[in-house]
Amino acid sequence: MIKFFLMVNKQGQTRLSRYYEHVEINKRTVLEAEVIRNCLSRSKDECSFVEYKDFKLVYRQYAALFVVVGIDQTENEMAVYELIHNFVEVLDKYFSRVASVMFNDYEMRSSEIRDQNITNGCLSLFLAE
């Protein structure tokens, strides 16, 4: 199950976040800071799957944008890795280009696109032709 979905720029600012389990607001900021620090400090040669506390982080970098997904131990890392790629490709087609600046203007539509792929913390599988 997916615990959270974050989009972060290289400066560590969260551009888009969604939690699929209840986390108190003050704990969210601490969690996001630790997760962001953990992912941004890794080199491009390192694996995009990270064990973190009682869950795993799956992340992917696109230019100055990081997409980080927190999952439990039972979720398939490669499926989530491909979900991230699919999500960014859809955003790229919809908005012409994906940049961290655009989320200020298009946050609502980005959230709708994300929610079509993730329902209640579970991947929504669909066949594309």
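the 2nd protein, sequnce then structure:
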Amino acid sequence: MTTGAGSSFGTTCWWGFSPALDLQRECLESSMAHLCLSQDDLPEFNILLVGSVDGRHVLRTMSQAHRWPQRRINFYIVENNLEALGRQLLFLSLALEPPEKMGLQEKSEMFLELLGNSLIRTPTAAYLQEKSDLFIRYVTDPDFQQRHLGAVDLSALKFKERDQLESIFRFWRNPDPQAFPITRLWDLRVRQYLGTRYDARRGVCDWDLTMKLHERGARTISGREFARWRDTGVAFELREGVYDVPNKTLASGRLLRHKGELVPARGYWGDIGTGPYLPFGIESEEPSLLKTINGIPAKSAQEISLFNVTALFHELAARAPYTPPPPTPEGASGAALAPETPTPNPDPDLQDHKAACPGPVRIHFLPLGCAARLPCKSQYHQRFHLLFFSSSMVHALTPELQLVSAPRATLITELTSFLPDVRKEQADAFLARVKAMAAGAGFTPCGSPEEQSQAWARFQRQEEGPGDPLRPLLAPDGPPEDGCPTHPPPPVCPWPSSVGGGINEV
């Protein structure tokens, strides 16, 4: 996979490169059969998300939890930068806003703005500043955070990471637009990426869209919206308002060499090639959105994204599938699909102004880059029934992770099919490498090659055999002397604890 300053992928990932998944649906039945009962006698479903970046899988799994037998769901989130962790906290807080405080349409449009726009409207910027004040209290006052957003657990974060998160939220709160001149930074990134092709950037844009993204399955992305995003970084223009305030959540820190010394700097080092349309804009449960007219999709990725996010937030609050309203006489637009007044929620818990999480769900934010250290902690021994790795974090898929995966666990890895810089032979080589790494961790591919998605690959943990090199750590060699069953001993960490630690560069 091509990364770095000379690639469109960038060095910081702000959104996923695969559609949002309902992880209860994607988890294999054999994995679900090994769920253990929690203290409240509910089956406990533990999910490890490594590099999920934007929280799309968490939100969709939460919103569709009512479709499945009741389970206690625990999400464990590992990222490699604190800005991505802060954005997920922002998206989760926005999704759980009570209906009487924010309407469904406003919530959906604001979510998409914050997710993928370099420039946002003034009301959205005001909401971000308001939430930044609240998040500062979250990371500095754990008791306050548990009273107001009890579904989130920040206790595993280090004190240094809490301090850095506070600095990030203070930067988000800064109203000065010159603190993050995203328009100039975006143009610099595009010029650096294209080089001599900059004057022909419209032709490069058309080629990447038609010959790469469309050929690989993202046909709903229209040329007009893709060109607009490539030029300005504004992916979603959902209203006739003015988009002129920098989206400070897209700022990240790096150490740059200046006059022979490393100095901290903030800038935009994210994606400028694919766009934020993949998480919600290329698939939908509503078949009418995917119809084509003369081979051209009738709806754009922006319209599909707005419908999917609106349906997600409605289902999250009402615990019922979203029914789209009938088209207006003057034609249904993307904004018309989202009703201004949401369906009243009978659940009294959501009548409070505190964020209320539907059902028994707990979201744990773990320290940066700690995936390599999880096997060293006894509380994670054979804990996770489903593991997800993004394409940017798949290098963390090591053989030791077999120690933290439950019997017959499901593994999902994001692929590089939707990265324009990655050629077909490189994508095939990446898939082969992922399969080899999964095999090293004790996972085998599921399904036939024809059933595999272009966006992600699915594996299942194989049964432990006598030849498994990690078997001595997974189970004792013989029965206990007293005849009573015992739990397998916690694994001994085979490498120094400092290896794999996440360090923020700023």
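The CA atoms of residues 104 and 492 lie 49 Å apart. Confidence is low (pLDDT under 50) at residues 1-5, 330-353, 471-506.
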